[in-house]
Structure formats: structure tokens, C-alpha cells
Amino acid sequence: MTDPHIPAAPDAVPGGSDAAATPPLTPPTPGAAPSAPAVPPAPPYAAPAYQPPTYQAPAYPPPAYPGAAPQPGYAPPAGYAAPPAPGYGAPYGYAPARKTNTLAIVSMIAAILGFIWVLPFVGSLAGAIMGHLSLGQIKRTGEGGRGMALTGVILGWIGVAIAVLIGVFFMIAIFYGAANGARYGSA
């Protein structure tokens, strides 16, 4: 195949093969040093040599840690403001984290302890009452922990209901046994 930009050799046949343009190969003589192959000249349309791009490190300001001294010789680039002084809140409008209501945490823990029968009746009742109180505080102050307060209320009242049902069952069993006059050891 021929390239229209490369001039054809004078002995090449147009439209034919390039077999006439290449000399025949002769086997090398034994003991003779092999000769280096001829390097063809560069074509006239060769592109310039590739130059890899050079990169410069960006001039970012160093990280500002509270109490850290500024680095010597550093000046912020033009158009950048100085970093905020430490201790003055989060920059760029971040919202502060909401505080979790402590009573909601205590309510949930007490209700769980009452529900798993570590503190059967007292833990459940305390969890339910403190859960109601913490829901009121959360509504008034806007603190976090509403889910924990609801967990305390729900588990607390379920635990109280289970404790009351078990207590009623034992009371019925005791009264039934006393009414029927169960006598042990009598023949």
C-alpha cells in the first residue's frame, strides 16, 4: 500500500507490489560480522518530538490546626482570605451538631433494663415516665434524641403491662390455691 504523501521510488511499479523496489536478500557469509541495517531517513512530515508537560504543585494554604504556628515564608495567594482563627466555629456555614437530650438516653436505658427483667417493674415505669418528660424537653429546646425517648416510652409501657399481667396471674394462682384448700401431706 502506498502513502500519497511519500514520493514513490523511481523503480516502483504504480499500482503493483513493492517487490521490485526491495533488493533481494543474500545469505550472510560465514564468519563475517553482521552489518547494521540501514536506517531510512525521516519522512518530511514527521511530527516534532514529544515534550511531556511540566506540572507545578498548587499553592494551597497549609492546614490550620488549633494552636499551630504559621509556616515561615508562606503567604496566601492573591484573592484568598486568611484562615479563620481557631475556636470561632466552623467556617463556610456548617451547622453545629445537635446535642442529644440526656433524659432520653437514660429513659431508653431504663426501659431496656426493665424489658429484659434486670429491673422488672421499676425500670420499665421509670423509662416510660422519663421518656414522656424528655419528649417535652425535646419539643421545647429542639435537642436531638426523639427516637431514644420514644423507645423509652414504648418499651417502658410494654414492660409495665407485662409486669402487671404476670403479677395478676400470680395473685389469681395464690387466691385459687387458698380458696380450694390445698393441703400438702394429708392423706
Automatic annotation (TrEMBL):
Alphabetical list of Pfam families matching this protein: DUF4190
Domain named DUF4190: residues: 103-165
Stretch list, region Disordered: 1-45
TM annotation in the entry: 103-129, 149-176
Biased composition, class Pro residues, residue ranges: 24-45
InterPro entries: DUF4190
Keywords: Membrane, Transmembrane, Transmembrane helix
Name of the protein described by the UniProt record: DUF4190 domain-containing protein
Lineage per the UniProt record: Bacteria, Bacillati, Actinomycetota, Actinomycetes, Micrococcales
